[in-house]
């Protein structure tokens, strides 16, 4: 990942870097790797995330179609 610094504006470059890292999910990954997660907990979390994503997509589809 690369961010260029323009006109010695380091603050702007840091903001851009943080935004890119947020989009890539690096912060979430770092938080999850701080402690061990049992395989059963991982499966449950991933299943819950999938359900959340599916519900969100369904809500958006319904809103788009005007039901």
Q: In DSSP terms, counting alpha (H) and pi (I) runs of 4 or more, how many helices?
A: 3
Span between termini: 42 Å
The Cα radius of gyration reads 18 Å
Which structural category fits the helices and strands? mainly alpha
Beta-strand percent range: under 5%
Helix amount, in percent?
Answer: over 70%
Largest sheet: none
Shape: flat
Q: Which segments are poorly predicted (pLDDT under 50) over 5 or more consecutive residues? A: none
Average pLDDT for all residues: 93
Order of helices and strands: HHH
Strand elements, count: 0
Can you describe this structure in just a few lines?
The chain is mainly alpha-helical and 67 residues long. It has helices at residues 10-24, 26-32, 39-65.
């Amino acid at each position: 990942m690369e961010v260029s610094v323009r006109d010695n504006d380091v603050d702007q470059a840091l903001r851009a870097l943080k935004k890119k890292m947020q989009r890539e999910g690096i912060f979430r990954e770092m938080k999850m790797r701080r402690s061990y997660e049992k395989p059963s907990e991982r499966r449950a979390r991933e299943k819950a995330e999938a359900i959340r994503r599916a519900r969100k997509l369904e809500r958006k589809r319904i809103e788009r179609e005007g039901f």
